[in-house]
Amino acid sequence: MNTTATAQANNVKDNVTSQFNKGAEKIADKAQDATNDLAIDMQNLKADMVSIQQTLTKLAAGAGNEAYKTAQGIGSTVAAQATDFANSAVSSAQSAVNSAQDQAKTFASELENRARANPLGTIGATLVVGVVIGMLSRGGRA
Fold first, then answer.
1. How far apart are CA 73 and CA 129, in angstroms?
2. In this predicted model, what pLDDT tens digit does every residue of 9-38 receive, in sequence order?
3. What local confidence, expressed as pLDDT, does residue 1 receive?
4. pTM
């Protein structure tokens, strides 16, 4: 019995060892598969990060370009409005100058017509104006 028990013990030992080795191999295979999968996932993650970086770069460049275009548009609008304002001011000033010239011409024409109509009155008025100016320039001294 001793031999049979020893043979059975060895048989059980061999079976346990065989099962243990098979389990260890399967665990090692699964660990290797997991390691390989992890390496692939890390490569994919790295590629995704590069892609994200490129996308962010494009986004930043696009945003900068749009900001430049917006600032340029605002500058053009302000310049156009300033030009319109300046043109309007020049036009208004020109109208005022033309109106003043017309009024001065009308006043001069009216004085000329009165002087032609009443030459002695014009000479008398001129004499009075000359005397007043003379008195004012001397300070009222006799």
1. 62
2. 788 878 888 887 888 888 888 888 888 888
3. 54
4. 0.41
User: Residue 114 has which token pair?
Assistant: 């009165």
Using CA atoms, how far apart are residues 10 and 131, in angstroms rounded to an integer?
Answer: 154
Cα separation values, 2 from 6, 8, 37, 122, 136, Å: 6, 10, 51, 166, 159
Q: Which SS3 state, helix, strand or coil, does residue 15 take?
A: helix
Distance between CA atoms of residues 65 and 68, nearest Å: 5
116, amino acid identity: R
CA–CA separation, 14 and 9 (whole Å): 8
Query: How far, in Å, CA of 141 to CA of 29, rounded?
Result: 130
Is the alpha carbon torsion for 23, 24, 29, 31 positive or negative? positive
Separation in Å, CA 86 to CA 17, 91, 100: 101, 8, 21
What is the domain count for the chain? Answer: 1
**Mean pLDDT for the chain?**
85
Strands, E assignment, the chain: none
Domain that holds residue 10: 2-105
